């Protein structure tokens, strides 16, 4: 009996020693984090380049804003199809192609001479590339590799976009100020290219590829590649569109996009510059938003694991709306303490909405949640796109961004009400739309 026990212990010993101390899921999450930083670098440029492109080519801010609008719309509309393509062809392949598209668009824009080329390179190529690495990418990785700590991991991966902003905004602002806009585009292209080897060597599509269970869960076999990715994406949209929670989630997230990417990311720097602030100073403030965005998003993920996601969403939108109503009064040539307070406050709230929104998608739509979230993310960018364009048109027409700030604050109040209207999912699924 003792001999058998000793033999079993000896046989089990190598397996115990070979077990990794860090679960592979955290390595995949780290690669995902870096990838999103590389892909999101280009999103730091629009607000910095509106004035330089206007001066360099003589294009109106509306023309430039239209290209930014196309980029944001494609970013959102690509996301749900990218999630389905990842199910069909694997995460690695889709992300590598997406990074190559971002690098190509960024490099090609250096040689553009007409506004339609800005639409093609900046709007189309970069929009498709960054959309394939959008939050649906994070949702796919989180759903496959994690059972425990999903809210926390969602917050960390969501913060990757803000981390890219933190790294690239001050750098690109300095490059634009000292050397012009072309070297800034080249810098972003190189950032996307550098990430490709990390994705190819370290990313894995499924825990079963390396013989592991998801973090905090039981081992499951890797499913066969899904066929009809586009058809499935559209089918999931039609199924979700027949339920009330989808429209409430999509509508509130559209307002989220309008009040962040469409408004602040695109127009904060030129608006501050209108009030006499140096571009580098305004870009640094936007980068500081990224610092507190990381803190706020990770903390929001922690809260989402513990509290009602609906109430969290309502609180986030209400606080954001109040802060935007005060922003026009804080603009000036110098950075004063009230502006610093706004930056901190707004930064904590920037994309804190993502973890509870994703949690509600998961609660309502189960296995299809990543694709549903992709469509909800599409609404985020579709909401951002018209504001990126109309904000520029409002500036051309009135010489000020004030009316856009006030309108966005009012929309955030509407989003808070929509979040409170979402009902908990029943055992049979979400309720159909009325």
UniProtKB/TrEMBL annotation:
Keywords: Membrane, Transmembrane, Transmembrane helix. It comes from the Bacteria. Residues 27-427 form the Major facilitator superfamily (MFS) profile domain. The chain crosses the membrane at residues 25-44, 64-85, 94-114, 120-140, 152-176, 182-203, 245-264, 279-303, 315-334, 340-360, 372-391, 403-422. GO terms for molecular function: transmembrane transporter activity. GO terms for cellular component: plasma membrane. It is found in: Cell membrane. The keyword Membrane applies. Its main location: membrane. Pfam families: MFS_1. InterPro entries: MFS, MFS_dom, MFS_trans_sf, Proton-linked_MCT. It is a multi-pass membrane protein. PANTHER family: EG:103B4.3 PROTEIN-RELATED, MONOCARBOXYLATE TRANSPORTER. This is Major facilitator superfamily MFS_1. It comes from Streptomyces pratensis (strain ATCC 33331 / IAF-45CD).
